[in-house]
Design goal:
single chain; mainly alpha; 9 helices; 63% helix
Length: 208
């Protein structure tokens, strides 16, 4: 975890403790800091703008109702809030399915997640120069949605591995293993050892 992320998490923790004591200004500031990442997470998975706004509103209703239950030993405020967002998106998918909406498995992240992390993962940046970032983004886009979501949370939102695990309801060891496999696969694809375009596609090489 870099220093900026550590400071952010510490600041959020302090603001939450003050908000629990009834400091309205602290809650307002915390809401303002959390609103953008929550909105980005939700709108990437809920395409209808009005529905997305409803889900974001629900997330902060649950946040307000559950502030006293937050346990800082289990992760950061941002990680906990994004877990609330993920659950709210899943709840919406369940309601849609119950009312004859799109037939989709609730666990099918591909149906909900189309977002790529904007920043390049630090662990992968050694593979590429700045002019190759678009190519790396294309490789990430070819990965399963659950892998894209992990990279978004880790590098787009700056969450610690423990928080990524909390959001996705996985163990930290499982997240570490998936990151290791995904990073290895991306490295192989980058070097041209694996053809990401599939059978008959163009093999990606370091000189493309």
């Amino acid at each position: 975890m870099n220093l900026r992320t550590a400071w952010r998490d510490r600041r959020h923790g302090i603001l939450l403790r003050l908000a629990r004591r009834g400091h309205e200004d602290s809650f307002t500031r915390l809401y303002q800091e959390l609103y953008a990442p929550v909105t980005a997470y939700v709108t990437g998975r809920v395409r209808n703008r009005e529905d997305a706004e409803d889900v974001v509103s629900l997330v902060f209703q649950r946040f307000l109702a559950g502030m006293d239950r937050f346990d800082g030993r289990r992760g950061s405020v941002l990680g906990w809030t994004l877990a609330l967002a993920r659950n709210a998106v899943i709840d919406r998918a369940r309601r849609q399915a119950a009312h004859g909406g799109a037939r989709r498995s609730v666990g099918d992240v591909d149906g909900m997640a189309e977002v790529l992390p904007s920043p390049v993962p630090d662990a992968l940046s050694v593979l590429v120069a700045d002019e190759d970032l678009a190519r790396l983004a294309r490789l990430l886009e070819m990965q399963p949605a659950e892998i894209r979501e992990m990279f978004e949370l880790r590098y787009g939102q700056g969450l610690a591995l423990k928080d990524v695990a909390g959001v996705l309801d996985l163990s930290e060891d499982a997240v570490k293993q998936r990151f290791a496999r995904a990073t290895r696969k991306l490295r192989e694809q980058w070097r041209g050892d694996v053809n990401p375009a599939g059978k008959g596609g163009k093999t990606c090489t370091a000189t493309d």
